[in-house]
Amino acid sequence: MTGIVIVNYKTAELTVDFVGRELSKLPSPWRLVIVDAAGDEESARRIQEGTGAIRITDPASPPERDAAVYLISSAENLGYARGNNLGAKFLADHFPEIDCFLFSNNDIEIIDADVVDRLRTVFARPDVGAAGPHVDGPFGRQGPGWKRKSIREETLLRLFYPLTWPLLRRIQNERNRPAPSGFCYSAVGCFFMASRKAFEACGGFDPATFLYGEEDILAERLLKCGYRYYYLGDRRVVHLVGGVTRHFLAPSKSDRLRLESQLYYYRTYRNASGMELALYRFANRLFTGVTEVTVHRLKLLLVRLRRGRGR
């Protein structure tokens, strides 16, 4: 059986809609735990009424086993990694029949109803620890399927952006092309599955992270345990990017969290040197604080000039 984990953060209505509209498409049985991060009583009430969830006050105590949906409220905003770890542990502790975890955002549209069943089949391979489908978003394909990153390459691409812009565009276009099914480095964290055996073997998500970068970190943790990601290119979901973050995170804070996560990833899992990390930090700050703003303003200027000529 598949155990599903959703981390909810101040989007109770979105979660209720996702459970009723999208998860109902899945033909095979599942159990769901919703981790309501920084949740209050009103949020819990809305989720319970909308999904029929059983409220869990003590995740360590045996729950009512007949329910399909459970709700764990946390006064603390646990973030992506700790929230999903909490949900996965609850399911693993109390439901031994669960052999796979589906980690999903609540801003997902399931296009192929058999996506979970097809993802489950790839775990027949002993070296597959996690798997994800083709993910579409407003900016094109989000993966999975991209290659293992290099801190030096990423630094140079940002540091010399005006010169490397054609290469960045080519990389982005490559990521947006449909890819055949096969092994890949990591999957998009908005909707993917992990085998329970592999997830528990590698210790789950790194609890030191809060938001962003969890996919690549999990990839490294799985690799150390002999597991890999698998990309299922013939099944598709749509991610309505930023359904949560754009409402509750200012762009500047989002950029900062993303940068800190990447620095942690390269420092802890890729053994980057202090000099490499310092250059990477500088290149990213230059890119987000100066280059992107300048390029955006130039684009606006060109648009205005073209409109002026058209009159």
Describe this entry's structure for a reader.
This protein has 311 residues and is an alpha/beta fold. The protein is built from eleven helices and eleven strands. Strand 1 (2-8), helix 1 (12-21) and strand 2 form a beta-alpha-beta unit. Helix 5 (151-159) packs across helix 6. The model has no long low-confidence stretch (mean pLDDT 87).
Q: How would a textbook summarize the main sheet?
A: 11 strands, mixed
Radius of gyration: 21 Å
Task: Give the helix tally.
Answer: 11
According to CATH, what is the class? Alpha Beta
The helix/strand class is alpha/beta
User: Strand-and-helix sequence, N→C?
Assistant: EHEHEEHEEHEEHHEEHHEHHH
Strand-residue proportion = 15-25%
Low-confidence stretches: none
Percent in helix? 40-55%
Number of strands: 11
Count up the domains. 1
- Mean pLDDT comes to 87
Please give the alpha-carbon distance between the first and last residues.
63 Å
Q: What's the name of the CATH homologous superfamily?
A: Spore Coat Polysaccharide Biosynthesis Protein SpsA, Chain A
Tertiary shape: globular
> The CATH topology, please?
Spore Coat Polysaccharide Biosynthesis Protein SpsA, Chain A
Write the CATH architecture name. Alpha-Beta Complex
